[in-house]
């Protein structure tokens, strides 16, 4: 029987190499994301047959992420770990569900289980993936409005960009509190959850190996962003916040942070829009290289 546990910082040393080795590119495979959000979604994990496997319980379903590890394309190894997951699910008396499976994982599941699987995608959970060099340069006519907003910001404000460090995290936390006050966190459950996740990330920022940057105007933090590598090609941006009354702050923090990543990563994953119309419009306006389709997969026992 598998024994699952709640996320803890000391697990990063074994979990992150397995997640990284899979090379999936979707936001579910960043250990820092799992650590930030586990309290909200009840995420637990374990190591099985050389794979990182996670689960959460939602009503009548036990929801597992596709196993991650260096042998992810080995069908024999995958079958062994799926046998363990299905045994775990039977012991719980739940319906077996795999969440966040991209096309690569879906192909492996088809090879393993054929017609026994049912796949359903949900546009709200597709990841937005961008070219890192393009986010840093914002080239072409389609990015003209972004460049205009950035030009306004540069000319109007006494601004400075700097990486997030232990010394300036308190300034980011203060900005996060004010952002929440302005955006009604107290009346929004989802914003309250995000607020707690951001605080958790900053509390363990260095230990998690997070990377980020902030913008100051006249010394005050008006925007910040941070994230973590998912694989050798993909960086995942977990959070981006800016004060809306500073025109150009969002495209500015986006561009400045992308500049620091463009020589190391091919792609930047800016995660899902969760069906929020404004967020979807904003993410599409940056012209993603691809929308990383993800399936919810049910497996007949």
Automatic annotation (TrEMBL):
Give the Pfam families listed for this entry: LPG_synthase_C
Q: Which residues form the Phosphatidylglycerol lysyltransferase C-terminal domain?
A: 26-297
The record's section on PROSITE patterns has: PROKAR_LIPOPROTEIN (PS51257)
- Determine the domain of life of the protein's source: Bacteria
Q: Can you say what this protein is called?
A: DUF2156 domain-containing protein
């Amino acid at each position: 029987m598998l024994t699952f546990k709640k996320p803890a910082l000391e697990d990063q040393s074994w979990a992150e190499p397995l997640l990284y080795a899979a090379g999936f590119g979707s936001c579910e495979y960043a250990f820092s994301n799992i650590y930030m959000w586990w309290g909200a979604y009840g995420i637990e994990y374990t190591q099985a047959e050389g794979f990182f496997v996670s689960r959460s319980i939602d009503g009548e379903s036990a929801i597992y992420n596709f196993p991650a590890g260096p042998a992810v394309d080995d069908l024999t190894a995958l079958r062994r770990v799926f046998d363990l997951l299905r045994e775990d699910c039977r012991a719980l008396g739940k319906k077996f569900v795999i969440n966040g499976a991209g096309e690569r994982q879906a192909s492996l599941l088809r090879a393993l289980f054929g017609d026994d699987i049912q796949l359903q995608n949900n546009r709200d959970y597709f990841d937005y993936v961008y070219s890192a060099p393009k986010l840093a340069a914002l080239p072409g006519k389609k990015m003209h409005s972004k460049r205009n907003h950035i030009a306004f910001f540069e000319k109007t404000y006494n601004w400075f960009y700097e990486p997030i460090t232990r010394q300036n995290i308190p300034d980011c936390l203060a900005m996060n509190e004010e952002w929440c006050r302005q955006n009604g966190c107290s009346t929004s459950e989802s914003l309250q959850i995000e607020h707690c996740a951001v605080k958790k990330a900053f509390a363990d920022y260095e230990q998690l190996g997070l990377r980020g940057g902030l913008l100051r105007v006249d010394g005050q933090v008006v925007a910040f962003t941070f994230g973590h590598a998912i694989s050798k090609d993909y960086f995942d941006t977990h959070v981006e916040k800016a004060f809306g009354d500073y025109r150009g702050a969002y495209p500015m923090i986006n561009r400045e942070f992308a500049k620091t990543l463009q020589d190391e990563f091919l792609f930047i994953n800016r995660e899902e829009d969760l069906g929020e119309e404004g967020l979807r419009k904003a993410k599409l306006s940056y012209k993603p290289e691809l929308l990383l389709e993800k399936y919810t997969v049910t497996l007949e026992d």
